[in-house]
Amino acid sequence: MIKRRKAKVIQIGKVRIGGNYPIAIQSMAKCKTSDSLQAIRQIKQLEAMGCEIVRLAVKDQADAAAIRQIKRQVKAPLVADIHFDWRLALAAIDSGADKIRLNPGNIFKPEQIKEVARAARLAGIPIRVGLNSGSVKKSKGRDIPSAMCVSALEYIRLLEKCGFYDIVVSLKASNIMDTVAAYRKFVKLCQYPLHLGVTATGLPYSGAIKSSIAVGALLLEGIGDTVRISLTDTPEQEIKAAKAILEGLGLRHFGPEVISCPTCGRCEVDLIKIVKQIEDRISHIGYQVSDMPAKLAVMGCVVNGPGEAREADIGIAFGKNQGLMFKAGKPVRKVSLAGSVSALIKEMGAKRGRKLER
Ligand code: SF4
């Protein structure tokens, strides 16, 4: 069991983070916020996949104004991502943003921070102090993680001086070591909840690996209250990666877990195709049964397959043209190759006393 750091509880729209609240999944719309129709479409897709908080780039007044219209059409809390111009934060708050992200690297004048804190406090919304290693002030003799922590703390003290305590912090670097070191250092300094991520990780394959090492290492230590897996890809891929990390650590359950063997010369079926079909057909189930974890095993042969299949709630070990189905550790029946995916889904429905197929 992972023992989570007890962070201060902060509310972002209807979502609470910190304390014992589930680690929330975030992503960012990848279109102009001022193109509100496109933004709404993207946010709805993200919501359907399980994204719980959505960030929007606010780089001009048109973006800030669009938040009002977007908010009417979506359920997820909206975070306005503000750089350079503190007045955009005020405009986003006025439009109904549920949280403001400020970058201490480019909005740092105390009087400007004070104005944003005042408006956020009046609106009852939190501010994320979002450090990026790229925009942090470097100083001689200080490594990047230390510089990020110092910068974050100075910012927090400024907000606190304004009587503002609804704070979330992120300390993202573009490499694993600095990211992990910065968060590890920071948790010794204060109790505000932490948004985890690695910036600019790259394409999905390497990006998801980098992120899962850094974010996974921190989550294993109980650090982290929200996550965003930044990928050079669609936001949907970011949600998939975030869910896989949280599920892999047993921190959240989003639906049935599918375990499958890597296949080898003993396998006599197209297991990759079968597993993809299963993943596709059960992808919607998570929201119906998220409170009831289920493990499905799909194995390529009858040599090692039955062992794993037995340990799952439901499993199939394939031979040639057919498979042996296991339920709660016991072989129950043979299934044809062609009917195996449907048989597995049907069996899952039987386990839950309902029909799960779309
Ligand atoms: S379960 Fe069978 S097919 Fe799959 S990797 Fe193991 S030995 Fe090979």
What does this protein look like?
With 358 residues, the protein is of the alpha/beta class. It folds into two domains: 239 residues, TIM Barrel (Alpha-Beta Barrel); 95 residues, Sulfite Reductase Hemoprotein, domain 1. 41% of the residues lie in helices and 19% in strands. The chain has twelve helices and 15 strands. The chain has an eight-stranded parallel sheet. It has a five-stranded mixed sheet with strand order 11-12-13-14-15, with helices on both faces. Strand 14 and strand 15 form a beta hairpin. Helix 1 packs across helix 2 and helix 2 packs parallel to helix 3. The radius of gyration is 23 Å and the shape is elongated. It starts with 9 loop residues before the first strand and ends in a 7-residue tail after the last helix. The site of iron/sulfur cluster has 12 residues, from loops.
